């Protein structure tokens, strides 16, 4: 069980890092001449890379409560990333396969983070 848990934790760490890396690569492709695109892109860069950073912190949490706090932060950052991606697509007419992948991945990450949070909150409730 512990080995499987550690393997899954490492895989998810890699997945959130891949999301951050894809966010950076996408930002680098955005047109530099359009101010609105650069503003939204920088917001995306901050939130997209924060997903991986916060997950790393969550994976080292010292308590269930600390874990829930960090995972909930991951959810917020992934949701914020989704907003910037939607604005780039819908209001700035940015289209690319990478943007589509980032939208899909942020949606999947949100679902996973919410599930993780609910499970740990239920475990905390059982203990009390």
The number of domains is: 1
**General form:** elongated
- Give the N-to-C terminal Cα separation: 25 Å
- What integer is the average pLDDT? 95
- Please report the total strand number as a whole number: 0
Q: So, CATH architecture?
A: Up-down Bundle
Unreliable parts: none
CATH superfamily: 23S rRNA-intervening sequence
Helix content: over 70%
The secondary-structure class comes to mainly alpha
Q: What about the largest sheet?
A: none
CATH class categorisation: Mainly Alpha
Order of helices and strands: HHHH
The third-level CATH topology is de novo design (two linked rop proteins)
Strand share of the residues?
under 5%
Tally of helical segments: 4
Rg computed from alpha carbons, rounded to a whole number of angstroms: 16 Å
Structure commentary:
- This protein is an all-alpha fold and 128 residues long.
- The chain has a single domain (2-127), classed as 23S rRNA-intervening sequence (de novo design (two linked rop proteins), Up-down Bundle).
- The chain contains four helices and no strands.
- The chain has helices spanning 2-29, 35-59, 64-92, 97-127.
- Helix 1 (2-29) packs antiparallel against helix 4 (97-127), helix 2 runs antiparallel to helix 3 and helix 3 (64-92) runs antiparallel to helix 4 (97-127).
- The mean pLDDT is 95.
Q: What's the helix and strand layout?
A:
Elements: H1 2-29, H2 35-59, H3 64-92, H4 97-127
Helix pairs in contact: 1-2, 1-4, 2-3, 3-4
